Amino acid sequence: xxxxxxxxxxxxxxxxxxxxxxxxxxxxxxxxxxxxxxxxxxxxxxxxxxxxxxxxxxxxxxxxxxxxxxxxxxxxxxxxxxxxxxxxxxxxxxxxxxxxxxxxxxxxxxxxxxxxxxxxxxxxxxxxxxxxxxxxxxxxxxxxxxxxxxxxxxxxxxxxxxxxxxxxxxxxxxxxxxxxxxxxxxxxxxxxxxxxxxxxxxxxxxxxxxxxxxxxxxxxxxxxxxxxxxxxxxxxxxxxx
Length: 241
What we know:
With 241 residues, the chain is mostly beta strands. The protein is 12% helix and 60% strand. It has 2 helices and 17 strands. It has helices spanning 2-20, 149-158; strands at 27-37, 41-42, 46-49, 53-54, 58-62, 65-75, 80-87, 91-98, 105-112, 115-121, 129-147, 166-172, 175-187, 192-200, 204-213, 218-227, 231-240. It has an 8-stranded antiparallel barrel. Strands 2, 3, 4, 12, 15 and 16 form a 6-stranded antiparallel β-sheet that branches.
């Protein structure tokens, strides 16, 4: 009887390990909390026309942002996988610093940054808890870029024009950037689990501003270079099939 019980227990353990195993061809879908924490710095705002002139002491900083993240992992084998990370584009607020600090908020924009990672999972495929490392790239672009009336008025004032005489629009450069990723996944049962990761993205962009009169005539252009370098954390519930 004891031998039979031991045999059944062993089969039970083997069966549970098989249920947790990550095998070639498995898909794991995830959804959860994405947090962007920029480690930002900036160059001074600089007019590039009609003359080249730096706004002394000017600077800007980017607030942190949260959004819904979505991901899909495909296992090539029990250790190697490819992951795509997407999500609802987060909105970032740009705050004035230095001589621009009295203005407060300078503007905002939505960031699109779909990411593709190659990931290596440590341990065995039937382990419930598995740390991982990832390396990949993201392509970043921005939409819904808007500037506050405070900044627009300050730019017009620098040109010696009265409030409301000009309006300013902005564009942010698109770019590719590498992504360095680490984290861990915990599988509860055959289907459900959780995953947590931290990514670092060395990222720079240049904001290019165009100031026009009410009639549409361009009277000045300016730019500000931003170093964002966000640390991105992602906590998700996962489903494997």
